[in-house]
Amino acid sequence: MTRHSSALDAAWAALRAHHAGLAGTRIAALFEEDQARFEGFSASADGLLMDYSKCRLTGETRRLLLALADAAGVTGFRDRMFAGEPINLTENRAVLHAAIRAPKGAGFTLDGQDVMADVLAMREACFAFARDVRGGKIAGAGGAFTDVVNIGIGGSDLGPVMAVEALRSFHDGPRLHFVSNVDGAHLADVLKGLDPTRTLFIIASKTFTTIETMTNARSARAWLARALGEQAVSDHFAAVSTAREKVEAFGIPASRMFGFWDWVGGRYSVWSSIGLPLMIAAGPERFAEFLAGGHAMDRHFREAEPKKNLPMLLGLIGIWHRNLCGHASRAIIPYAQRLSRFPAYLQQLDMESNGKRVTREGEPVATVTGPIVWGEPGTNGQHAFFQLIHQGTDIIPVEFLLGAKGEDDPALKAKSIEAASGSREDLAFEKALSAHQPLLIANCLAQSQALMRGRTLAEAGGNPHRVFPGDRPSITIVFERLTPFVLGQLIALYEHRVFVEAAIWNINAYDQWGVELGKELATKLEGPVRTGEGLDTLDGSTAGLVRRVRGE
Ligand code: F6P
User: Fold this and answer.
1) Is residue 245 annotated as part of the catalytic site, yes or no?
2) Is pTM, for the whole model, over 0.85?
C-alpha cells in the first residue's frame, strides 16, 4: 500500500510551483529586500546557531516546507520514535538511540517497560571499566595500559574514531588507536611500536560476526599471544557487543563485555558502550557532557516549534535542495580540524540511513531520496575541490561548521602564562597560535560569501575564466567551542535531520539491506581468490580479475 494523501500531493505541488516562481531571484537580492534576513533565517538551540539565510529560499518557502512536514506527519512520526514504537518496520525494531544518551528518569519505554534502568546500568559498568583502565586498576601484564586499540568497522568505528579525534583537547587517558580495514596493513601499522604488555584491545561489533572485525580481532589475538601466551587474552581484551555467546567463545569473559540493544542501530550507537574508547580517552565525566549535548538536542527537537527547530529546518532545507532544486550532493565542511572525521561519520549516518529506493511499504519511491554526502575540513578543501564548488557545472549546497573559539583557546592560555609569568618563548608560541583562529573564521565566512556573491564578468575584467556565477547556497552552523556537549548537539542534530528527511520521503532510515549483497558475494569469492578454483562459474570480468591478482 502506498502512502497517499491529497494534502501531501498538494504540499509538493505548491512547493514545485513556488520553486518555479523563485527562478531568477538571486540569494544576494533577498538580503537587499530584507535587512533583517539573518535574524529571520537563522535559529539557535542551546548556544548552537544555524544560519540558513544564504540559501535561496523565502519566508513562503519555509511556510510551504513546514506544510509539507505537516502533511507528511513528521512530528507524529517523531513522537512514535520517542515512544519506542517499532518504526524500523523491516526489522520490527524500535529506534531508541535517544534513550542511550538520556538521563535518569527520562521515561523511555519499550513494550511498556522502562528501558532506562538497563541503559543506566550499562553506562555505569562502562564508566567503571573506563575509570579502572585510566587509573591503572585494570592493567596489562606490564602495568597500566598505555595504549588502547579499538577494532570495529562502520558504526562500531566511525563514531568513536570521529569523537575521540574531535575531543582530543580533553584527552587525559591512554592513547587511542583504531583499526577498521580488513587490509592487514591497517592492523600491522597500528601495532607497530605498541607494547603488547601494556595494550588493551576493544573488539567492537554489535553482531560479533562482521568478517573484517573478526579477522582483525583474531590477528590481534595472535599478536598478543605471540608475546604473552593465550592465557593473557582475557586480561588484554574487552568487547562491545550484543552477542554474548560469540564474545565468550572468542575468549573474552562476560565481565568484560559491554552490551547494547537491537533497538540501537550501529550508526546511532556512539552514545552507548560503543563510546568506550572516548570514555577511556577523556573520562566518564566528559562523556556524560557529550551525552547531555545529545539529550539537549533531543529535547529541542521534541519541544521547539517547527519554525525554530534546528533538525526540522535542516531536514526541510535538505528536502528543498534535493527534491525541488535537484542538487544531488551536499558537502559538509568543518572549519575545525578536529572535526576532520565528521564528514566520514555523516556519510554513514546519512547515506546508510537514507540511501533507499523503496518506501516503507516496499513501493518504488516517487521522488529522489538521500543525496551524496561528502566533505573535508576547511581550509584544506579550499585548496582542493572548492574550484568545482565555485565554478563547476553542478551546484553543491555546502554546510559549514565553525567554532567561534579554537579548541585549546591559545588566547586564554597566553593570558594564564602571562599571569604566571611563564617563559617568553611559551608566550610567543601561544600568541602565534592565537593568531590562527581569526584566519580560520575569515576563510570560512569568505567561502560562503563568495558562493553567494560570485563575481561578474565586468568585475572579472571581462575574463570568463575568472567569473564566479555565485548564487550558490550554504548553511553555516556556529558553535562557541568544540566541547563534549557541543559535539553531542551536532551529532544529534544530524541524526534528527536524517529522520526528518526519511519521514518526508516515507523510507525506513533504520535498516541497511544495501550492504548485504556485497558481503554475501565476498564470502563466496574468498575460496576462488585463495585457491583459483571455481572460476568457470564467475562472469568473465570477475574471473579475469581473480586470475590477475593470483598472477595466473
Ligand atoms: O556494513 C553494515 C553494518 O551492518 C553497519 O551498519 C554497522 O555499523 C557495521 O556493519 C558493523 O557491524 P557490527 O557492529 O555488527 O560489526
Assistant:
1) no
2) yes
